[in-house]
Amino acid sequence: MTATPATFSSFTPPGSPPRKRNKAQEPSPSQDLPCINNYRGYVPPPGTTTVEAIDLPVFLSTHGERQAPFAFFRQYIGPRKPVLIRGTLPDQQWRAGTMWKDPEYLKSKAGKARVRVETRENTREEYGQGKETTMLFEEFVTEVVDKENQLLYLTTQELDIGPDDRPALMSSPLTELQGDLPLRPSLLRLLVPQNMNLWMGRSGRGEGGREGESSSGLHHDYHDNLYILLGGRKVFRLYAPSEAPNMYTLGKLRLVHGNGRLNYYGQPLTCADGREKNAVKAWEAARRLEEVARRSERESGKEGGREREEEALEAALEAVLDTELEGEEGKEGQEEEEEEDAASDQEEYPRLQAPQSGSPLPPSLPPPLPPSLPSTTFARTGKPPANFSRVDLTAPDGVDPALFPAFPRHPPLEVEVQEGEMLYLPAGWFHHVQSKGGIHMAVNYWFHPPDGEGGGGEGKDSVYMDGFWERDWQERMQGRREQEAVGGGGGNDGGSREGSGKERRGEVERDGSE
């Protein structure tokens, strides 16, 4: 299958209300509902096992600095196509590629930050099944660099919540190091960042002198990923979102959006760009309340002004309460709503009922959990992460077809990312990552996945059908400027209120570990 055009016009419009059904038509609560796969992006043609690569200096020279983000969107982001980028960020703020090679620099800038670190018992174990410990960042750097400790791995950290109830873009140690990298990389400036992370560990020599390695489990992320390798080597094995129903995820897959964004039963149904269905309504109601409150102060001394503003304030408060009540009712009746929505999807997209590969559906009795699951997710939520697969790609005898009959038999795409290179990976692409080559360090940006090409955003540059994420970003940046103006720095900037709620529900949709 060839890449689709950059337009998202064929995507299911996010936020479209499901058709209402009579009770007699509704499925019973016990009915096993299949996944609805609406993926419209790139699928590797048969026999393809490599990822396209571009030379970034040549790409920038060909398209020019101003047009390069649009060209990159047309060729890769829009079609939902992974690409290896030879070169790192061209932004002036980008100094991480050189400055962070010096461990003493890292210690001087962020050494006193407390970080959570994954551990493992020995080098044969995969990260994720071990424990977690807390230490100073300078202690971690000393262990990995000076003591050559191969049993520690720095991965995603908890995000601070700001005074406006927004999760920060990043957490320590990136908060202390953020002066060395742009908040919104120019090459992907059409996308709105969701989160930034630092990854660091060490791979040594294995048995018999072979090159040692560590690996993640097979999983997908909920956001578009720009992965920038600062040291070491990483080998990614990739499966397209079209294969999602055959990936044996720990969660019960409900919907694959046109752009590859995945939803699971038991989790809030989102739009294709990751917004929860009532996020925009809640956002607009809160803004209206703030506006009415400000206007009330101005009008309070005018004749009749107090009465008018009291009425407006009451209406705004009712709108806020309505959205909160909708959220609570949505939680209480979530299972019923999920079945109704999924059944409605079946009516509208009957051609998508069969798995695209033609292979049988996964067995109802799942095989044992793989060893490479993130222990942090278990520790924080008490539940295995929905976005991880039961399939262990590191099994000595390969994938067992008796346990996983629907798992793809064709080889995955494979790409090796080297120091000084980047990988763009759209949301929903399943990936397994092996770390090689001594000390490995990377920075990644997660972006809200685009769901359109204009039509509801902030002008012609928008790639979102609704301007929610762009408006949220502008508010975030305004908050940073105000914080810096009073001498508070810009580290604890906020994220979206919708995202904050998601974090507080126990990281229901947490991206994976690389």
From TrEMBL:
Biased composition (Acidic residues): 334-347
Region annotated Disordered, chain positions: 1-37, 290-394, 474-514
Compositionally biased intervals (Pro residues): 360-373
InterPro entries registered for this protein in UniProt: Cupin_8, JmjC_dom, RmlC-like_jellyroll
Top-level taxonomic group: Eukaryota
Comp. bias regions, Basic and acidic residues: 290-309, 474-484, 495-514
Biased composition range(s): Low complexity: 1-13
Residue ranges of domain JmjC in the record: 170-464
Xref: Pfam families: Cupin_8 (PF13621)
PROSITE patterns assigned: JMJC
Gene3D superfamilies linked: Jelly Rolls (2.60.120.10)
PANTHER family named among the record's database cross-references: HYPOXIA-INDUCIBLE FACTOR 1 ALPHA INHIBITOR-RELATED, JMJC DOMAIN-CONTAINING PROTEIN 4
Name of protein: Ion channel
Phylogenetic lineage: Eukaryota, Sar, Stramenopiles, Ochrophyta, Eustigmatophyceae
